[in-house]
Design brief:
mainly alpha, single chain, three-stranded antiparallel β-sheet, 3 strands, Lysozyme
């Protein structure tokens, strides 16, 4: 009986060691596989073995292509002009040469459940010195305040969550839709970088009919094909009294695809007015 008892104790301890070893192996493996997001920031606000139940229907996860063009939407081959283009192919509500491009546009910074993210917006604003209203404007144009918004891009990437942050994998996308505060922080970091670049471009070219925030919004919105919407226009020039303006600010020959420069202008002007 003593021998049997010893055997039971040894088997129990062996089983415990196996269970503990398996736990450590799985935990370490999951940490290595999923520890960092696309920007290399450690994910320390959750664990693989923690689960939450959400009573919200999955119907909320929609493709937002009809809501806005995202940061990496490529122009399509469609020959149908977008609503931002008139019958002649020029932009609707086009500014006159030499006038401020975005005159008459207003900010839409209240949408969906955006009031739930006041603290996250404030934190991101302080971290990157970006206007809270500008962040709200991007959220409303990108996702209408829907944290579950997902768009599959033509280049194989995904634009996800409130600010449609662009990532490579489904796992990253799910993380950003499930963690709206992190989505806002990453989106604001991207927006901040675009503001800095827009200021350099404006100083370099001397644009005087657009604002830095409008240029940053244009860059946030466009373009997956590598085109820079803030580079000087070839159609609107000093020769036809336009002076020097970025591509998106020129109503001449904006393109006929759904995501043409008129659509970029509409986005840039509405978001830029939120500053």
């Amino acid at each position: 009986m003593m021998k049997k008892a010893k055997t039971i104790i040894i088997q129990t301890l062996t089983g415990f060691a196996i269970v503990l070893g398996a736990w450590l192996i799985v935990t370490y493996s999951m940490y290595i596989i999923g520890s960092s997001n696309r920007d290399g920031v450690m994910r320390t606000d959750g664990a693989w073995y923690e689960f939450t139940c959400d009573t919200v229907s999955n119907q909320a996860a929609i493709d937002i292509g009809s809501i806005s063009t995202s940061t990496t939407t490529s122009p399509t081959s469609s020959t149908v002009a977008s609503a931002a283009v008139d019958s002649s192919g020029d932009c609707l509500n086009a500014a006159m040469p030499g006038a401020q491009t975005c005159t008459g546009y207003s900010c839409i910074s209240t949408c969906g459940s955006i009031s739930s993210y006041v603290s996250a917006i404030s934190s991101a604003s302080s971290s990157y010195n970006v206007s809270e209203n500008l962040i709200r404007g991007v959220i409303c144009r990108e996702s209408s305040g829907n944290t579950n918004a997902i768009k599959n891009e033509s280049d194989g990437t995904m634009s996800c969550g409130l600010m449609q942050v662009n990532v490579d994998t489904q796992a990253e996308c799910e993380y950003l839709t499930e963690h709206p505060a992190e989505n806002i922080m990453q989106g604001t970091a991207s927006l901040s970088a675009r503001i800095a670049q827009a200021q350099k471009t404006m100083d370099s070219h001397g644009y005087n009919t657009v604002e830095v925030e409008e240029m940053a919004a244009a860059a946030y919105n466009c373009c997956a094909n590598g085109e820079d919407p803030n580079s000087p226009s070839n159609d609107c020039t000093a020769a036809n009294d336009w002076g020097l303006v970025p591509k998106w600010a020129c109503p001449i020959d904006p393109g006929t695809s759904e995501f043409n420069m008129c659509a970029v202008k509409d986005y840039a002007c509405s978001v830029g007015s939120c500053e």
